[in-house]
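During the second year of the project, the team shifted from modelling isolated chains to modelling whole assemblies. The rationale, set out in the original proposal, was that interfaces cannot be judged from single-chain predictions alone. As a representative example for this report, we include one of the complexes processed in the last quarter. Its constituent sequences, exactly as entered into the pipeline, are reproduced here:
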Amino acid sequence: MSKRDLLPGTLDMLVLRTLSLGTLHGYAIAQHIERTSGDVFRLEQGSLYPALERLQGAGLVKSKWGTSPTGRRARYYTITASGRKRLGEEISQFDALTHAIARILGRA
Amino acid sequence: MSWLDGLRHRVRTVLRPGAYEREMEEELRHHEALRAANGDGRFGNRTYHKEEARRMTWLAWTDLVRQDLGYAWRSIRRTPAVTTMIIVTLALGIGVNAATFSVLDQIFLRNPAGVVDPDGIRRIWTRHTRTGGGPAFYSEAMAFPTYRQLAATWGDPGRMAVMTSSSNFHLGGTRAGYATQILFTSANYFPLLGVSPARGRLFTEGEARPGNPTHVVVLSDRYWKAHLGADPAIVGTRIKLDTTEYEVIGVMPPAFNGINLQATEVWAPLSALPQADTPHAGVPSIWESPRYLTFFTFVRTTDGQRMADFERAATATVREANRRTDGPRADTLAEVRTASIIQARGPETVRQDELIATRLQGVALIVLVIACANVVNLLLARAVNRKREIAIRLALGISRTRLIRLITLEAVILATLAGTAALFAAWWGGAVLRAQLIVNTDFAQPIMHGHVIWATIAVTLGCGTIAGIIPALQGSRPQLTGDLKDGAKSGVRHRSRLRNGLVVAQAAFSVMLLVGATLLVRTLRNVEGIDIGFDATRILYGNIAFEPGQQPPLAGIVATSRDVAERLRSRPGIEVVARAGLTPMKGFSFWSFYWGSDSSGSLTKQFPLTYAVSPEFFEATGLRLLRGTTFHDGYSGAAEVIVNAATARLLWPHGEAVGQCIRFQKPDAACMIVTGVVADATIGDIVQASPPQIYLPLGAALTKNMDGGLLVVRARAGGEATARREISAVLRQAYPTAEPIIGSMVDDLNPKYRPWRLGAQLFAGLGALALLVALVGIYSTIAYSVGQRRHEFGVRVALGAKVGDVLNQVVGEGVRVVLVGVALGVGLTLVASRLVATLLYGVEPNDVSAILLAGSALLLVTIVAAIVPALRAARSDPLTALRSE
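Output from the structure prediction step:
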């Protein structure tokens, strides 16, 4: 699935959700999202890194260079307090949205 | 503060784009390596990924700006000649304005530095109405008793400061020491202004109180650094200023240099004012006399009602005091007004240099408008030449806003370059103007100031934007197919209306400036032609400057100067030697006198100026004898007197002055017979009528005690330098320890002509500049229109048009447009010319010949500007024109 198929803002929410579990580098974020979605989402660098840049610019995510378990330098991302707050808002909005769609489709 | 972290991240990206790039590269490589390790080899395009991420940063925006700047810079560099022309035109236009503004700012807008809440300070002015006729005028100067009455009227004497200045205090007590002016003030001067010393203390109320001379001084930072070596232990030491020692009690901070245009360097308490307490017998001291109008006052208040009440009460006080001192001839129309701390913003502007400065700013603004119009014209021509390029860009999908931004940016860059040049021009020009226009003033503040810099930046950006946006709007209007095919050649009739409008405006404003220049040049000629009554060329005078306190007794000086004059008479280079009590046409004294057979005539208000001179004085100065004779014998004590024409008119309006009798000082004094009437010698302003003047012989009983130590010499033609040397040598021989001072009448008179010369030069210079700029504008418009219509001219020539026909057509078109401008300019001139009326002498503001001259000058320029492109049009080769079809 490409980024265009996601609902707008969904990618940011997924990244924030992933980071709410702990500090991760870019690849780990992508892998986590892909695995947890049961490989329904494929997250390309061309979508992930702009999203991370956007989130950092908004102050929702912080980053820091560190060393990965393999001994390589890697940039680690951490969710900030306002990132968590935003995540909560986005999840409730998303819930309302999916609930409404489900009702239209007669599934609720 | 997470948003702050976000901002920090964004700013860091912009500040260190290299680091951002490297980190992104490393992060993506890492990502790819991990994917590969997990058996996923499809990485995609890394450059694309990086670009996508970059689009999220502020770098995306700065990239765009950099692109725009780069584009604008490249297109500016592509046409260096036009670019240079634009920058020079704008720099001149803006520079002239900035320089003029820097002077205006200094005179009218800038509060004295260092003063706390300067708007709360009000200077006190008095309007004087002359009883003998003549215009009423405002002055800040008042007598000390008047100050005391006003302070009482004010109700709070502690809140009204008083000051007076005195000059020529030589540091160290010798003539070689730096001479400064001392401002003698009341103790509340400093606290009312809100200033405190950087070192030491200020004087106390007790020290400043008149009658108790206390010789202490407070120095300005400037004086302390320049003349006392910034001695850190200066407070408590004594310095000698002329004959008196003063204790230095404080040094002011660098920012505070008094409240006048001229920097104040030394402050002393009022009580220390020299000679204030030692009047001549029977003459009241400065503190008591109503005649010494030398004190200035100010108060601090922001209460408008209180000011109004004070002005009313003070007016009554002053009128009452005048009535007491002057009786029936008192100035009962006197009025007291308060005004800004900025001296030039007093109740009226009278000084001619200030008038010139304001008018000059108007002229400078007109030059700027003309310059801007020219730049618009040049940019328009270029934008139209680039139509094909712009059409391609539009076709490739550039947005109209971005295109307008690009073209405007170009103009703003040009204006910025011009503005930078203009700031330098202002710095230099401001200094020149300051030195030329407001002479002999050691300014308290530097030329460049926030006001000037901000105004220059604002004007620069304003000009750049206006000059850029018009061509941008014009040029970006898409007509794709036509423009792609034809580029710049095709007829663009609708666009020439704007260009013609610009030429009309330029022509109109140029006419205004040219009329102004003509009027001022003619004024100068009239002023220089004014009969000053004497022949100033080759008049030198020699005087002696004694060391302070070392002046020999008067009798000695009189005897010596007679010897000196005698010895000088036979020296080379000397034609005539005379003696006088004071500098001719400059120094004077007043004597009360009576005339008429029964001594019934007397003047109590306006006294003629009196001069004590030797008989040769009239020959030496070339002062024309109108009737009668000069002194028969100036040394034998003969009771003779010579009057000027103005005195004769004043005293004997209906009869002959020669042979009449004047008695000085007392109605029953000895009769002095008028032996001759001489021309009126200009003494003050050149254009003012000369006051009544009376010449007394040096040897008369009355003037026995006048020293006559001043030598007045007419040098032989070409012998001026020799004469100077001779005077100096003879004086040095007579007074070995003192210093001879040689002056020249021409040097004395020059400053009087200076404002007129300067006005004429500045207006003529700016007028010429405007004409030059208009020439370029007209030329570029016609050349451009001819270039566009090559095809049309080609056809005309092919159909048999002769050179004359084409010339007629092109020149005629130019002249028609300019004529509209000239008509408009004449209209504007008729409306605006009375603004310069005060700068004129002997010529009417709406002088017809000046207007005709300006109009024809502009038409001549038009013909010159049109002739080159017209010849080009006439030589159009029909084949070339038709082939490009």
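The interface with chain B takes residues 25-27, 30-31, 44-47, 49-54, 56-60, 62, 65, 68, 72-75, 80-83 of chain A (CB under 8 Å). The mean pLDDT of chain A is 86.
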